[in-house]
Design a protein that fits this description.
There is one protein chain. By secondary structure, the protein is of the alpha/beta class. Helix content is 42%, strand content 19%. The chain is built from eleven helices and eleven strands. The strands form three sheets. The chain has a five-stranded parallel beta sheet, sandwiched between helices. It is globular, with a radius of gyration of 20 Å. The two termini are 27 Å apart. It comes from Caproiciproducens galactitolivorans.
């Protein structure tokens, strides 16, 4: 149950059209819907401000459709589906309107999210090979109501590319820095920006990159203050956290 439905329920109690006992029953029975293979968390938006996000990898198209249908039935307007394969997306979109992006493997079911924050999130990637993770972060942030500016292929091997966009960096409320190899981009941006920087190590790189571990360790050991790090290839987590930070700026 989202905040609008909860307010409507409370208004019914206030108006006397619904008894407190029946209202309590509705609240007690609405926290989740048990589909057998999944318990859909219908109170997530009420608790956290954002509905449950469907992790598509490992789920069948039928399971994804079942979860999304339960969410739509309960008033969720924008449903985010991450790590969704092209094959699964083709099946899902036959039953549910779906905006699918092959690069990020991210699908959005339902209406396009409105911009709900005045701040700007900048998503910067070191190289073109990092685009799948960067786009996952960018599209996640957009689906959560944020304005996003993309700076792609601005890695430290050609530092002038990043420095030419310094005006964009200085306008950001939060920056997501996506890099593989040695992961140096996050430290450089952290030394230039006056806002929080969320570093995302990617599994892009040669053998000694160890599937992103070298970039992860470099980012964790950054000497630039204000840099935090999410898990390897976790563009979704970075985009979600960036949205939280961006919206906090408006609350303040």
């Amino acid at each position: 149950m989202d905040s609008k439905k909860t307010l409507a329920l409370l208004q019914e109690v206030k108006n006397g059209t619904l008894s407190p006992e029946k209202a309590v029953l509705k609240l007690r029975t609405s926290p989740y819907e048990d589909l057998g293979y999944a318990k859909v968390d219908l109170h997530r938006e009420l608790r956290q401000g954002v509905p449950e996000v469907i992790y598509g990898s490992g789920k069948t198209p039928e399971q994804i459709m079942g979860i999304a249908s339960a969410m739509r039935k309960n008033g969720v307007g924008t449903i985010l589906i991450t790590r969704l394969s092209t094959e699964a997306a083709e099946i899902v979109e036959k039953a549910i309107p779906l905006d699918y992006d092959e690069v990020s493997r991210l699908g959005i079911a339902g209406r396009k999210a409105e911009i709900t924050s005045s701040g700007i999130i900048v998503v910067a990637s070191a190289g073109t090979s990092d685009l799948p993770v960067a786009e996952e972060a960018a599209r996640t942030a957009e689906a959560l109501g944020n304005k996003v500016t993309r700076l792609y292929d601005v890695g430290v091997a050609g530092l002038h590319r990043l420095l030419s966009k310094l005006d964009v960096i200085l306008k950001a409320r939060v920056i997501v820095a996506v890099a593989g190899m040695e992961g140096a981009l996050a430290s450089v941006i952290g030394g230039l920006a006056d806002c929080p920087v969320i570093a995302v190590p990617t599994s892009i790189g040669y053998g000694a990159n160890f599937g992103g571990v070298s970039a992860l360790l470099s980012m964790l050991n950054s000497c630039a203050s204000g840099v935090s790090v999410v898990n390897i290839d976790n563009g979704f987590g970075a985009g979600f956290l960036a949205s939280r930070i961006n919206h906090l700026g408006d609350k303040e």
